[in-house]
Amino acid sequence: MTFCTVLLALILDKLLGETQKWHPLVGFGVWVNRIEARLNQPTRSRRKGVIAVILAVVPFTLISFVLDDLSKHSEWSHLLISSFILYIAIGWRSLIEHSESIVGPLMEGNIDNARAEIAKIVSRDTSNLNESDISKAATESVLENGADAIFSAIFWFCVLGIPGVVIYRLSNTLDAMWGYKSERYFLFGWAAARLDDVLNFIPARFTAISYALAGNFNTAISCWSSQATSWKSPNAGPVMSAGAGALNVSLGGKATYHGKEQIRPLLGPPEDRTTQADLRSIQQACKLINNSLLLWLMAIAIIGFVL
Fold it and tell me: Rounded to whole angstroms, how far apart are CA atoms 227 and 41?
């Protein structure tokens, strides 16, 4: 049943894509903004951030437990409801489409349009990026968001069903909204960021293994073991380093955020054996996501058959 649910959710996502209107996470975002407006003033603290996370996540989690229990009275209703909720939680098609919207202008040599498209999915400054910079940023985004938008959601559904994927997606959304190290969110967003780190810890490493199996295995494992801890995020490190090795591409390095230049650790094979990012790197990253997803489906089917 788990395999059928995941497969149906992916089919729905492939056919329908991300809903443009009435997306549940939009409503959740409104609720989250109201909580933040009430609690994150006049003083900011971690304690208030913890309370905010509880208020944001617990009500919907309780509803998901009730929905999960009620739907189990019928296998068909449980399949359909579970598949729909998982479909809402994943972003496979949208991730691929966003990457394709960047590849198109790069193929045409239209750097301005490519900059405009990459600006929609990354937080770094994009106004002065060249073709290689754009390709690197897009490749990094595909690899990292593959873990967040696809594999982690599937993992938590397989482990805890409807409640698992609901808790994960809401927590990940909170991290995207509050998990900044700015003055406004440094203390208040701490709980949301740490919860997201905890929930992504295991699936991020499963994602890294998937990238290795679907790409250049030995290089991916080598990069993961030697470079993952140098990255600022404990979960993005394994995913990005394994992905860079699997694709045999150089990632990381210089990037500008909010007007400040940062020199990030380099990821990927040694310079004499690696390639610089270009539009083919974006396409290969998308292919790596698709092949990894196929591996996940095979693993879920095998585990379901054995159990």
Answer: 39
